[in-house]
Structures are given as C-alpha cells and as structure tokens.
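tokens incoming
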C-alpha cells in the first residue's frame, strides 16, 4: 500500500468506523487524599485504532499522570479509564509503555532484555528468541543482541526499550517523552524510526512530548493540556506525518500550514504558563 493509500485508510478508519480502544471518562486525580486541588480534573479522551495522538502541555500539567492512569500504574481518584470497554485495573502487555529513561536490566543482554516480557508470559524460549531478534532487527540493533545495556548509547537503549514494548504486539503504545534525553540528530532518527514502525504495525500510540515540531511531525491528533487543573483544552487534527516521507522533510516543516499550527499551539502553551504563574501570585 502506498503512503497516500495508507493515509486515506487511516483517515477513513477514524472517520467512518472509529473503533475506540482506550476510553477515559471524567477522570480526576489528586495525589494525596487531603489535597483539595486535583492534578487532573474531569478528563475525557478516546483513542481510536491506529491513531497517533500527541499530548502537549506546560510542565507539571499532568501529562505523565494521565499516561500512567491509562497504563494502569495508578488508579484515578474519580472516573475511569477503559480498554475495549473494560476498566483498566493494572498494567497489561496489551499496553506497552516506553519512558524517557528506559529501565533496562543491566545484567541481561539486549536480546534478553527484549525477550523479558515474553519470558514472563511463558512464551517458549525458541519462539521468544526468534521474536526478540525480529524486533531487534526492526530497530536496527540485531548486531548488538549480545551486548549489555552499558555498552549501548542513549539512542540505542531507547531502541531496545521500543523493541521490548513492541515484541508483545501491544495494541496501544504509551510513550512518555521517549526521545527527551537524546541529542537532536539521534532524536530525528528515532522520530523516523517510530513513524515507520507505526505505519508498519498500525498500533495506536499516545505520545507525550515537549517538542511541538515532534508532535506535529508524528501525530494524527495533537492534544494540548492546561495546568492547575490539568485538562485537555484543545485538539488539533493533523496529517503532516504522512508528508514526512524522508525525501524532503524541510518542505513540510517550513510549509505555511505547519508553521501556523506550530505558532497556534506554542501560543496556547505559553498562555497556560502565564495563567498558571499569575494564578500562583
Ligand atoms: N507521585 C507523585 N506524588 C505527588 N505528586 C506528584 C506525583 N507525581 C507527580 N506529581 C505532581 O503532579 C503534577 C503533575 O505531574 P506530571 O508528572 O504528571 O506532569 P507532566 O505534565 O508530565 O510534567 P513534565 O512535563 O514536567 O514531565 C506535578 O505537580 C507533580 O509534582
């Protein structure tokens, strides 16, 4: 299928037959019971099959908290998050999670780190090794299969973390600033890698970033959050990701539409910062 055909199929799928995978309803969260102010307040969000949703917002607005609720790592104080209509009560391999600092097991090889989840799920060893190698190949690290994490660069570790999440064929990939600690060039490479993986696997991605360009160049939908309380205040449908085919990404990045949307989003985030600061004074 060509990129144009894939784009049309993805747009049609979300428009005509929006299969909701993740549904967040009226979610509020306060970290301590005695604390009257909620970090998140009355969040409603639906993630559809095959979407790439990017979450932006000022620091401390609750992006990671929302992702952790969807991952099943913390329960909301009010409301609920559900996957396929079932309330999320804990972590599940159908929802892969990738954090900024990938917690790789230092005593295991790259291959064994990737196979770890499969081992926990009692997937037979030979099958697990084959799958681990397949995904290491996908992220371009097969030749480092026997290396230990300390022998890998930051970008390579993040690739291992992505392979480790993908090897379980999760339906949803939850990524919390996965490229935040990488240098600009590696980051650019990782964005391309992730875009290709998303196109190839068709999995649903929720991606937190502070980088508006990154969000616009990857997402099919960009959500902007406010702070104090954390709420989703704007949603932008985007399709720039389909235009970043590798030949001339600069043309898209500097196109009028891209620049205008970036300005609008940055403006919105800055206003949130100003509002939050003045509200503290
Ligand atoms: N375990 C915790 N206990 C108490 N407060 C917490 C906890 N985790 C986060 N918070 C607070 O909740 C708020 C939201 O934090 P969160 O990490 O979700 O924001 P964020 O938008 O992801 O921030 P950043 O962009 O800086 O990573 C912050 O005020 C933070 O201090």
């Amino acid at each position: 299928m060509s990129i144009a055909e894939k784009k049309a199929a993805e747009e049609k799928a979300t428009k005509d037959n929006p299969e909701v995978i993740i549904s967040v309803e009226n979610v509020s969260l306060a970290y301590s019971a005695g604390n009257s102010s909620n970090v998140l307040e009355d969040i409603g969000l639906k993630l559809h099959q095959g979407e790439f949703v990017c979450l932006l917002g000022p620091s401390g607005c609750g992006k990671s908290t929302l992702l952790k609720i969807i991952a099943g790592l913390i329960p909301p104080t009010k409301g609920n998050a559900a996957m396929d209509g079932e309330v999320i009560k804990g972590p599940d391999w159908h929802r892969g999670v990738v954090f900024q600092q990938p917690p790789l097991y230092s005593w295991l090889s790259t291959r064994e780190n990737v196979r770890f989840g499969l081992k926990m799920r009692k997937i037979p060893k030979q099958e697990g090794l084959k799958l681990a190698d397949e995904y290491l190949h996908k992220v371009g690290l097969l030749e480092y299969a026997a290396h230990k994490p300390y022998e890998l660069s930051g970008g390579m570790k993040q690739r291992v973390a992505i392979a480790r999440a993908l090897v379980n064929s999760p339906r949803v990939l939850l990524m919390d600033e996965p490229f935040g600690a990488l240098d600009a060039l590696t980051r650019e490479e990782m964005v391309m890698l992730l875009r290709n993986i998303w196109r190839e696997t068709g999995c649903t991605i929720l991606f937190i970033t502070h980088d508006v360009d990154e969000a616009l160049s990857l997402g099919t939908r960009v959500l902007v959050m406010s702070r104090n309380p954390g709420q989703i205040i704007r949603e932008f449908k985007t399709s720039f990701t389909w235009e970043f085919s590798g030949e001339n990404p600069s043309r898209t990045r500097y196109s009028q539409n891209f620049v205008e949307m970036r300005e609008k989003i940055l403006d919105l985030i800055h206003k949130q910062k100003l509002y939050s600061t003045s509200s503290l004074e």
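note: Residues 3-85+208-280 form a domain with the Rossmann fold fold (CATH 3.40.50.300).
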